[in-house]
Design goal:
The model has no long low-confidence stretch (mean pLDDT 93). It is elongated and about 85 Å long. By secondary structure, the protein is mostly helical. 71% of the residues lie in helices and 0% in strands. It has 18 helices and no strands.
Length: 296
């Protein structure tokens, strides 16, 4: 009977029952009733449930503590002075993604930087072929962008022990963080053996916008054998608006044969010095004019 009453109170979100449920939680010996009481308080969803849940927390079993933390996270309350790191990380390590989403919210609420390596590991282990891959990656990345993750991410990339997909994920995240601290290692990664790491590094350097990256990126536009790497480096130079890249990119217009790269060069040149580029409009070959028309 108690079980079904608790279930009904949860559906009703009966705030007036919070104190009574808290007393039941402390007084019953039934593990089933304790579990249902914790669940009910969580579903009621009021800030008032934090007090009875935290009162019981020191007496709770390991599994009960996890459920209490889940309930607190759902209502968005992590009281000051409560160290729930172990429980939040334990929830994140669960196989089900519904559990991971709860943990990610808890990581944001507590600025849990100790979770950074686990988030990166999870990102690297995800199968890109899964229908919800992008959604999961976005959730993981948004969490890293919401906490003080920069130091941990730079440390992970410097150790150079990450697997390919995890490394690419960290590079992209550092770019979105506009991490000046990551610039030296990202410049080195422009010469990585894997082309996707070179692409990710060029894009990240563009997002960060540090002028120190201009010369290494110029070098990539000239020397890299992969067209997609050159394209990423050119885009980055356009974002940085590096004036020293102007002459190099003008020469690249005569060298490049791929329409998408020609368009990328034109876009970068306009970003760097639009007036100068358009001044010589009549002298450009047909492909360049077509690229310009596509942009305008």
């Amino acid at each position: 009977v108690v079980f079904y009453v608790l279930h009904a109170l949860a559906q009703l979100k009966a705030e007036e029952a919070i104190d009574t449920i808290g007393e039941l939680l402390l007084g019953t010996d039934s593990l089933l009733i304790k579990a249902e009481a914790i669940d009910t308080l969580g579903k009621i969803g009021s800030e008032k449930v934090a007090e009875p849940l935290l009162k019981y927390f020191p007496l709770a079993t390991k599994d009960e503590k996890k459920e209490i933390v889940k309930a607190l996270i759902r209502i968005g309350i992590i009281p000051d002075g409560q160290n729930l790191k172990e429980e939040i990380l334990s929830i994140f390590k669960e196989q089900e993604w519904d559990e991971k989403h709860i943990a990610l919210k808890g990581i944001k609420l507590t600025n849990l930087t100790e979770a950074v390596p686990f988030i990166v590991e999870e990102a690297g282990a995800l199968d890109p072929g899964c229908f919800d891959y992008e959604e999961k990656i976005q959730s993981l990345q948004e969490t890293l962008l919401s906490i003080d993750s920069e130091e941990e991410l730079v440390s992970l990339i410097e150790k150079n022990k990450l697997k390919y997909r995890a490394k690419a994920f960290v590079i992209e995240t550092l770019g979105k963080l506009r991490s000046k601290k990551a610039v030296p290692i990202l410049i080195r990664l422009l010469d990585d053996i894997k082309r996707d790491i070179r692409i990710a590094s060029a894009k990240a350097l563009g997002e960060i916008g540090d002028k120190k990256a201009s010369q290494p990126l110029i070098k990539k536009t000239i020397e890299d054998e992969d067209a997609n790497v050159r394209k990423a480096a050119i885009q980055a130079l356009g974002i940085i608006r590096a004036p020293e890249a102007y002459k190099v990119l003008i020469k690249a217009l005569d060298r490049e044969i791929y329409p998408d790269i020609i368009e990328t060069i034109v876009s970068a040149l306009i970003s760097i010095d639009q007036e100068k580029f358009l001044k010589n409009l009549k002298s450009y070959k047909r492909e360049i004019k077509q690229a310009l028309a596509g942009l305008t």
